[in-house]
């Protein structure tokens, strides 16, 4: 073939004027739309407020939400992409609005932060998007006949979108308020007032004037959650019924619903409800002195309790009180260490005593109520701790949720706000690993990354301390002390440092702004960024604090940090306090339903019985269900209450060896009354691999946890505690050594 002779090649089809993921959507485009205008919308889709993503419909999976958006006539702009980027859509009617937005606020690096800021301003005004419409939170006062009681009623109404889009364009709050006009009256004001007056009159007729005042906050709690009138009326009736039951039947067995506390969870804690507790919220950011002030009050108490989120902080709390001359016992999941003449018990939050009355109780890190797996423990402690005075330490953004929970208890807390002594400053640029300084803390989010960073930083001549979740509290504490006294210059840690540890950190440097949450990688939330970065500049240790990212972090890490740090943390939307079953729930369901299998009882708790939908939700119980199924199969001879204790054990289902040991011990207990010999005492020592010693420590912890709950069944405590101590020493020795750790087996 002659190469100089041009060959006839098939002509390429012309590029579509409007590139669309779904070509059929071209028919939905407005007439007269220019291709260059569509290109502008595609380019700015990540920032335009008119653009929809599947989460806006809150319709389950992305796939089903995509189909719903398609059915609603939306046009798909882009498909979902790796890294968590969602698909993007727009209603045809919103295309001219989006173009007007771009004309008013052209696409620049500041457009997306500007739109996010205006969205936050809308939410502060009570406006938010719900599906395809914007709604407005309206609050109307209702005055009742009894002593002119006032109740603020919250309800949401749809609003015209034109003033909202205009606000996105010009940011003019005054024009937005004018465009929205006066809030419409509640359609059922007369009917609701009549119903409330009837409920109060019915309660007043009971003749218990001293108790009547506690009805008002319960009614206010219901009216503070927007809901349809019929649901609100029913909820108010239930609230009055619960109050009436509380007054009439404090010492008697209530109906099944009341027994299970599904319609009145706070009322199931009799000791706390009878006290008339004084509750104070200590609110503020990290390093604001709120914990110090709480311990000052606790040290003066006749007796009391400190409830910590971690065993490490329970240990620290015990030592802090003992250092002030206050005898203090320690109680955690795996140990009970009584002190002579103890006035205070320092414990982990799950070990809260809801029976014995104390003078003062301090509940720490209460924003953890939002935690998916452990939030139930804070719900239980806040409503159930029987203390004359309760101090709840939390970040300010958690205050509304906690206040609403306390209102359901008939209690109105006082608030004490603490300001941070120094602000954390965002550094202008990333920091290379070779430029680390004494007092720096580098943050990662996996054991592997922590150890890898330790090795890399050590090669630059720094002594390094490390803290991560798999480390036992004793070793974490020693590593923190090495950093505190200057034996190590740099700390490499997971977000564990964001949980109350007192460390002389000057700069917090993120190695990444993403973390694996058990499902996939995601960006850190605003609250996580604040909690971690807030550890920089400890008051009394450093005059100021700084935060940035490592230069070796992902390319957009600094941009994410710069975006997240100025934002204020916010509570999850439409939050409901999580509740887990206690023995009273399990026993009542078993007796009333005639079932003895723990798995069946827990399934009824989760699936068939319902909490008060406006305020509570069932906690995540998947692991408890897995253990219950195994216990019903292999240890059915154990009484139900003992199987329930076993199902609450700290067994990480991701570690097959630990699950096998646990199953073996429970089976032996059911068959012989004894767990058997702890063979692991001969299988592990302080000279193994790091990961092997960490696994051995988990086994030790599980054995001690079970021994504390089944006296006489496990035993060998001294030998297990001795092995735990030797393993701690072995792990610490490896961490202090110079040998690389992350490249070794088990990384």
TrEMBL record:
Keywords annotated in UniProt: ATP-binding, Helicase, Hydrolase, Nucleotide-binding
Domain Helicase C-terminal: 401-576
SUPFAM superfamilies: P-loop containing nucleoside triphosphate hydrolases
PROSITE patterns on file: HELICASE_ATP_BIND_1, HELICASE_CTER
Residue ranges of every copy of the Helicase ATP-binding domain listed in the record: 271-416
GO molecular function, one term: helicase activity
Region (Disordered), start-end ranges: 1-28
InterPro entries: DEXQc_SUV3, Helicase_ATP-bd, Helicase_C-like, P-loop_NTPase, RNA-DNA_Helicase, SUV3_C
Pfam families, per the entry: DEXQc_Suv3, Helicase_C, SUV3_C
Biased composition (Pro residues): 11-22
Keyword Ribosomal protein in record: no
Entry keyword Protein transport: no
Protein name: Helicase-related protein
């Amino acid at each position: 073939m002659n190469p100089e002779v041009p060959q006839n090649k098939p002509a390429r089809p012309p590029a579509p004027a409007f590139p669309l993921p779904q070509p059929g959507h071209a028919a939905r485009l407005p007439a007269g739309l220019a291709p260059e205008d569509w290109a502008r919308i595609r380019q700015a889709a990540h920032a335009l407020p008119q653009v929809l993503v599947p989460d806006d419909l809150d319709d389950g999976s992305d796939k089903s939400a995509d189909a719903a958006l398609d059915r609603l006539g939306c046009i798909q702009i882009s498909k979902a992409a790796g890294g968590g980027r969602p698909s993007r859509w727009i209603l045809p009617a919103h295309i001219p609005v989006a173009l007007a937005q771009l004309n008013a606020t052209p696409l620049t690096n500041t457009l997306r932060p500007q739109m996010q800021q205006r969205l936050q301003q809308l939410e502060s005004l009570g406006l938010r998007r719900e599906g395809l419409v914007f709604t407005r939170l309206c609050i109307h006062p209702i005055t009742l006949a009894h002593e002119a009681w006032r109740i603020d009623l919250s309800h949401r109404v749809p609003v015209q979108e034109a003033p909202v889009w205009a606000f996105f364009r010009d940011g003019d709050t005054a024009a937005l308020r004018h465009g929205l006009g006066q809030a419409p009256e509640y359609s059922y004001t007369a009917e609701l007032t009549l119903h409330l007056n009837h409920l109060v009159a019915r309660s007043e007729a009971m003749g218990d004037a001293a108790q009547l005042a506690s009805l008002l906050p319960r009614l206010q709690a219901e009216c503070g959650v927007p809901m349809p009138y019929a649901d609100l009326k029913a909820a108010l009736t239930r609230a009055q019924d619960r109050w009436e039951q509380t007054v009439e039947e404090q010492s008697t067995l209530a109906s099944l619903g009341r027994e299970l506390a599904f319609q009145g969870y706070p009322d199931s804690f009799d000791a706390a409800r009878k006290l008339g507790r004084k509750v104070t919220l200590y609110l503020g950011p990290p390093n604001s002195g709120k914990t110090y002030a709480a311990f000052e009050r606790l040290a003066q108490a006749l007796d009391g309790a400190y409830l910590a989120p971690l065993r490490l902080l329970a240990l620290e709390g015990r030592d802090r009180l003992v250092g002030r001359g206050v005898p203090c016992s320690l109680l955690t999941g795996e140990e009970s260490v009584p002190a002579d003449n103890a006035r205070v018990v320092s414990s982990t939050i799950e070990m809260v005593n809801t029976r014995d009355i104390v003078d003062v109780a301090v509940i720490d890190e209460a924003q953890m109520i939002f935690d998916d797996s452990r939030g139930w423990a804070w719900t239980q402690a806040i409503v159930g701790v029987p203390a004359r005075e309760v101090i709840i330490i939390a970040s300010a953004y958690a205050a509304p949720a906690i206040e609403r929970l306390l209102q359901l208890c008939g209690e109105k807390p006082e608030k004490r706000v603490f300001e941070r002594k120094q602000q954390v400053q965002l550094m202008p640029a990333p920091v290379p690993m070779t430029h680390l300084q004494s007092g720096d803390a580098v943050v990662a989010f996996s054991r592997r990354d922590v150890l890898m960073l330790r090795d890399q930083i050590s090669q630059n001549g720094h002594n390094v301390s490390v803290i991560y979740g798999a480390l036992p509290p004793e070793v974490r504490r020693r590593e923190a002390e090495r950093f505190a006294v200057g034996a190590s210059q740099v700390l490499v840690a997971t977000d564990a440092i964001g949980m109350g540890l007192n460390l002389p950190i000057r700069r917090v440097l993120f190695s990444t702004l993403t973390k694996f949450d058990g499902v996939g990688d995601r960006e850190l939330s605003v609250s996580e960024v604040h909690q971690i970065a807030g550890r920089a500049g400890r008051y009394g240790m450093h005059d100021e604090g700084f935060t940035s990212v490592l230069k070796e972090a992902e390319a957009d890490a600094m941009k994410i940090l710069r975006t997240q740090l100025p934002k204020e943390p916010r509570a999850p939307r439409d939050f409901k306090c999580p509740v887990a079953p206690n023995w009273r729930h399990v026993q009542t369901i078993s007796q009333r339903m005639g079932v003895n299998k723990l798995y069946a009882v827990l399934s009824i708790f989760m699936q068939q019985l319902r909490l008060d939908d406006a305020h509570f939700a069932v906690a995540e119980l998947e692991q408890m269900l897995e253990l219950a199924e195994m216990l019903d199969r292999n240890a059915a001879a154990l009484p139900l209450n003992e199987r329930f204790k076993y199902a609450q054990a700290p067994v990480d289902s991701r570690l097959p060896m630990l699950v096998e040991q646990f199953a073996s011990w429970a089976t032996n207990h059911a068959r012989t009354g004894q767990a058997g010999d702890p063979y692991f005492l001969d299988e592990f020592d302080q000279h193994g691999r790091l990961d092997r010693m960490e696994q051995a420590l988990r086994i030790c912890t599980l054995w001690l946890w079970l021994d504390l709950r089944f006296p006489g069944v496990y035993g060998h405590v001294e030998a297990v505690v001795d092995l735990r101590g030797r393993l701690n020493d072995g792990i610490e020795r490896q961490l202090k050594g110079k040998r690389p750790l992350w490249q070794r087996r088990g990384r």
